[in-house]
Design goal:
14% strand, 159 residues, alpha+beta, single chain, four-stranded antiparallel β-sheet
């Protein structure tokens, strides 16, 4: 159990370090709009994103949304702590993935006014931090109800 918990902490931190390194390289070495094609439809290039996902909204809205997301994550952790429930390994892993990915993107917003994306897939620009956030959210969703449908403790009254 200790190994799983350690991995749930170390893996997101290692991915955070990898994301920071990839962002630095994309910013320092690649001109905007030009990079390396990895495979058809997937390339590594510098893309500056001042908005939220898919470059939506203004930088100030993106910064406020990021701050609200962090407050929600902190509330989730505090609720668990105040309830006296031990944090399960999967919850810890999802929390760490979201926090590390969010921290990397928020750092970009504070320092540069927008996020550095470098994985161009089809018409979308991503970074490892984005993937970490999505993976953390998916872990939370599938943890709540791994089989889909209505769980045994949630019954619907049909009247």
């Amino acid at each position: 159990m200790r190994v799983k918990r350690a991995l749930a902490v170390v893996l997101p931190i290692a991915l955070l370090a990898l994301d920071r390194l990839a962002k630095w390289y994309a910013f320092a070495a690649l001109p905007p709009g030009r990079g390396a094609v990895l495979v058809s439809g997937l390339s590594y290039e510098y893309f500056y994103n001042p908005g939220l996902a898919f470059s939506l909204f203004s930088p100030i809205v993106a910064t406020i949304a990021s701050a609200l997301a962090f407050m929600s994550l902190a509330a989730f952790a505090l609720r668990h702590r105040l309830a006296g429930k031990p944090l399960r390994t999967r919850d810890l892993c999802s929390f760490m993935l979201i926090a590390a990915g969010g921290a990397s993107n928020v750092y970009d917003r504070i320092i540069g006014g927008g996020v550095t994306d470098y994985i161009i897939f089809a018409r979308s620009a991503w970074n490892i931090a984005d993937i970490m956030i999505l993976a953390g959210i998916a872990l939370m969703i599938f943890e709540r109800n791994p089989k889909g449908g209505i769980s045994a403790d949630r019954k619907i009254n049909k009247t």
